[in-house]
Amino acid sequence: MGIISIDAECPAPQAMTRQETRSRLAVDRQRLTAAMREAGQVCGAFWLVPAWQAVWLYRWSYFHFVNGRRLLSRAYWHLNLLLTGADINPLSEIGPGLLLSSPLGVVIVGRLGANVTVYGHVGIGGGLSQKDIGAGSGLPVVEDDVVLHFSAVVLGPVRIGKGARLGARTLVTRDIPSGGVVTLDEPRILRRGSTDDEGG
């Protein structure tokens, strides 16, 4: 993903108010509540849900980062990693409605739009070039309503168009158009001692 420090020189992000942060959290919570109800899960005791802890800690890490409190921002960032396993760099600007279905192993460095859904072990970051397409040097831009399934990885200064779907274990290093779907080939089951396909 590349090594990116919040102490490095980077474009000054626009300051954010507490009210704006709480507003985004309200939308985040609505999406998570809807997803939990759809899955038949109990929505009480939100503080015990890692998916909520990860988003809440990221939002306040970002809030302190854009308002110049880098040390406090780092504390929230590292607490998030410790409690939930999610590594969401406070350099990342993420729109309202973020849904982390499973925060464990998630790494995000870049710009994400509204209502993005991220499953476990997803990686979003740079490391392939220094080109800036709007998220910072070498970082990707993920537009609104994108879904990234388990272990999907987005690397480098690429743009994932609105409503795109990235299947499990896919690796994306080029732009994906709006509504695009990226999948791996269907797995095959081979007979023991043979290279013939079994059941397609």
What report would you give on this structure?
There is one protein chain. With about 200 residues, the chain is α/β, with parallel strands linked by helices. It folds into two domains: about 70 residues, no CATH class; about 80 residues, UDP N-Acetylglucosamine Acyltransferase, domain 1 (3 Solenoid). It contains three helices and 16 strands. The strands form four sheets. Strands 1-4-7-10-13 form a five-stranded parallel β-sheet. Helix 2 packs antiparallel against helix 3. The radius of gyration is 18 Å and the shape is globular. It starts with 17 loop residues before the first helix and ends with a strand.
Write the layout of secondary structure elements.
Blueprint lengths: L17 H21 L11 H17 L3 H15 L2 E2 L4 E2 L4 E2 L6 E2 L2 E2 L4 E2 L4 E3 L15 E2 L4 E2 L4 E3 L3 E2 L4 E2 L4 E2 L8 E2 L6 E2 L6 E2 L2
Parallel strand pairs: 1-4, 2-5, 3-6, 4-7, 5-8, 6-9, 7-10, 8-11, 9-12, 10-13, 12-14
Antiparallel strand pairs: 15-16
Helix pairs in contact: 1-2, 2-3
